[in-house]
Amino acid sequence: MTIRLQSTVKGQMKEVFEAFDESLFRYLLPPGAKLIRFDGSSPGNIVHLQFPLGLEWISEITSEEIQATHCYFIDVGVKLPAPLRDWKHTHHVVLESQDMSRIIDEMQFSSGYKLADLLLYPLLFLAFLPRVYQYKKYFSSLNS
Known about the structure:
The protein is α+β, with helices and mostly antiparallel strands. It has helices at residues 13-18, 22-28, 114-128, 130-142, and strands spanning 2-10, 34-38, 46-51, 55-66, 70-79, 86-97, 100-110. The radius of gyration is 15 Å and the shape is globular.
């Protein structure tokens, strides 16, 4: 299944893309999550989170592309909390205008079971929905 969320933010595309660093990642962490490791947003980098009840989430950045009007990087789940089996998160930053960019979070996931995916969808959607507003606030404060 795929979840896709978009947010238009203040800032030039390349500056917004380069701001996907540990500071932004900590800002976006959900309540109760703890950042164990953040190598960066380049291929080969690892991001490791720990959630309550000892649940862990480890992702590896597998690819990155920077073009004139669109940038993205992809993280893929290496170790995921049950019932997730597969996770691919593409972080797009798209040029909107000279000083505005659009961030698109596109998350593909699977538990291996369609019914479980249908049950997971609203939980994951609600977990990532705050990012739409968090991005706006974060980049507005950087570009004020």
